[in-house]
Batch of 4 targets.
Target 1
Amino acid sequence: MLNNGPLQEDWLLSLKRKAAAVHPPATLKNKVMEHVQMRNTKGEVLATVQIDSFQDDEIMDTIIQDLKPGMGVAVYIAGQGEPFFSQQTNYAAVQWEDGLPSLLQLASPMRLMLPHAELQNIQVFYGFDNLTDEEIAEMAAESEQTGNKVVVRNLVQNQTLVGLSLFYSDQETEFEYRIFRTTKSRIHVPDIEQHVIEHLTIRGNEAVYLADHHRQHLIWAEEDTGIPTPLQYEIICDNQNKRWLLGIAHNLHLLKPTPYSLLDG
């Protein structure tokens, strides 16, 4: 796990200088390409995905682009209308060397659905501590006292497992399989005109398929996870097609923590 050392402190100071340079009013532009709510068969929202592209003249995009892996910030923006508060994170992928059975024990009581494929590599993601109401109020007070319309604060990384990334090989195709406890995500696409967005269903739950000429990305959420909240699943690969990704997603098997090896699926 990354620490919050001098390099991160220098980065945060640089980011604060950028934020302080924003002239009032700081506004949020309506540039969202698509805001997708993925629901279950009952119409309940399980996960949301915001799909857009970066704009260099928007402060939030500037902040997100500057986030290094393992860093997170809280952002308070005062402008026209109600103030805006957001926590933006860039999870760092940490190599997991202890095998899948140990990872399943760490993830317990989560019930994970995994592909029928050859597991090649495992990475995990750790979360950040949320700001308290008192700390958010302090950011609002700082904005009012200094006149800065944008205030940022560092988020502290913790040891809570929030996601994992499993790298598989299926015949001649390699793909990444992600599972996250966080079910609100933001995806940036480099070329809106060349990007395909399709709404699908997986086991009755709504899903979204994103693709360009090179990369394919399937996202959905599942209930019956062993925890009170859904889990978000993702399959990412290059140079494949929608049918192939759906074939992987529709043929997952449920794994529970056990004392024997599950590496062969």
Target 2
Amino acid sequence: MASPDLFVNPPVDTDKFMTETPFLCHNVQYNVNYKWSVITNEDILFIHGESLNYPERAYPVRIFLGKCQPLEQEDPAIANKFYGVFPHMPLSASDNNTSDQYDTPRGVVMTSRNGTEYALYNFGTESIPSPGVGSRYYVTPFMVYHPSEGARGEFKGMRSIVFKNSAQHPDGSILDLGNDGKYYVFHVKDQDYPNTDYGRYYYNSNQVPVYSRPKFFHGARLLGGGQRALLFQI
């Protein structure tokens, strides 16, 4: 169980134990081995964990930390605190009846648009395959948005893409998007979420069950195939 600093100063009306990020479902401890990948640039840090055992218990780990870029000009005092933490498990979400139905991650930013410290924001991108001919690519940002504010900005320096033919762009290669810059290609493994009944909840450190499911893109798998990848600006 990982707890960010906001555990001691959680968002308004948010239980601090609901800001934890679980690695295992249910309430039994297992010695899970992960393959870790950590990618960073000037503004952001991405942590990617693939479980190597206990797939029926272990969550795929996807944690995004770093600077966000507003779509519209903001007061510098607000814009300079537009940093976020967005884990694979939506923060402060627990509902036994609907946990499987949400398709959007949710994390926290340092300061909201109206100056509220540590505010919950949704976070997501698209999973649309790029065209299969020529050097044409469908690239989408990771948007940061609030239900009442709408879209505020994007996670800086990172994009998502779905390749129809992954062999043309292997893991670790460089993708040149011309005027949009050059990007490091990181292939994302589609790891299934724990799908047994006890995979629908985990226990936080207060020993309370939390009914939620990890969210990454719009789901664990791509309908129709293809290779998901993250693009990090270099």
Target 3
Amino acid sequence: MFAASALASMTIGTAAAQTTASRINAGTALARLIYPPELDEAVMTLTFNAGVAPTYHADLDLTPLEAAHPGLIDAMVAAMRVEYRRARTAALPTLWARTGAVYARRLDDAELREAIAFHASDGARRIRALEIAVIAKAPPADAGGDAIQLYPADPTPVDGVAQGMFNATLAGEKLAAIQAEVRAINDDWSGKAAPPAAIVEAALARVMVRFGAVYAPTAPATSR
């Protein structure tokens, strides 16, 4: 009897582990659909266009270098972007695993299947393409530093209805309820997905050599 009880416990435990693994896999699959590489590329494009490039062009230490070597700053920004793209691409599986674990924990098996079915649908892909397009084409930030307002194009009536119907489901409501948690994970991941400073500095140094420029930043003023 003891052996039978132990076997039953082992069977239940194995089944639970399999269910958990299956749900985690489903959560990761959902995470990839919700935040695909194309969306991360658009986010990075926005970051460089609205933040990095204007900052470098406003750097007074780089102004004389740009005057002497036109195109230098844009080349520096482009070199940085290559390294950031490489680092973020390599780190995306980590993001999907982290956000996927949240989806797996908050949604049951049926809800995960429903969410995956919607986000893998042609309509959801078209809606995501609209979001990606508006993010990637966002204008540079104003000099005042105000946040950029993004207004994606409206989906087609059919796609809009499909989205509304999914949002009204329990799966859709749960996804909406955990957006803040997922966004916090994304923000944390984004900060950690940057390439090492030494790699960025080496990339910038190669640009300087190519342009024949020498970067000597102005020393900060000291009080006497």
Target 4
Amino acid sequence: MATKTPTKADEHELSDEDRKKLQEHMQFLSNRYVINITLAKDNEPAKIFVGDGTTDWHIQRGVDVEVPGTVLHALDNAVVGVTEEDPNDPTKSVTVMRHRFPYTVKRVIERKAPAF
């Protein structure tokens, strides 16, 4: 019985699990989403700027807008450290990572992901 000798191309083959994760991520990025970014505090701008690597977006807070998955990805990665009281010791504080621009997904508009 012959066995296959590994080649350079085999090193780059994805496992079934990795292929599934990649396909799910590609589907997420391909979809479009109707979102609403939480209203700002008085000292924050009413419009926010989001760059997704291909397009610049100025999004009005409190308004439903349709955006691609790349914008959600950028929003998910926009975090800020907030100092809060330590729940275990009120004399200490801890830094908690919070979304800089919290949003709600109102609707998903599914699109076919590109094949890979």
